[in-house]
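Entry:
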Amino acid sequence: MNQIARRQAATDKRRAFHWVWRFVVLAVILALLTVIIVRAFFVDVFNIESDSMQSTLNPGQVISVDRRAYDADKGVTPQRGDVIVFDGRGSFLPYSSATTFSDLLGAFNLNGGSHTYVKRVIGVGGDSVECCSADGQIKVNGEAIHEEYVYSGDAPSDIEFSVQVPENRLWVMGDHRSVSQDSRSLLGVSGGGMINVDRVAGRVSNVIWPLDQRHEVR
């Protein structure tokens, strides 16, 4: 092979390498964008780090969250008994307010999970919720509710309360009532611990990790 041919072969090899490298970079970027879009608008995942939802959800588990479960414009909002993920700013974090920029970052999972909480909906807009009935149960609209999900050995609530949930708000509690910091803990602050339905990211649908603990969340 003469010198010109060798130079041409080397040039062709460099060009082929550059095209492969560009393809790999483009594929990685597209994969990342796909993951971000899926997590922002369809199904997200979160790690459980606290004991407040035991034994429904336990520390170390990973949950999937259906971001399409609710659509306020269509009148589809969280219902009693749903386990939800929500942004606690303005409610659980009463002195921390959300901004358009932070909401945008949150939609694409770029601002961390320090404002994110997982709890169960006990009361929705228009409900009266109180503790407790004569036999120690939570009452919703005057009727005692049977809560099979409450952590074994816990009372439905050790805190007495009586609230009227405003429209477009939610009263939420953890299943491990004795350790959960929830709507009961914020009765004296702005918003009274009520979650705005607009701050709900989605409904918890499944435990997906560890594999031997996979199940549907109810």
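The chain has a mean pLDDT of 84.
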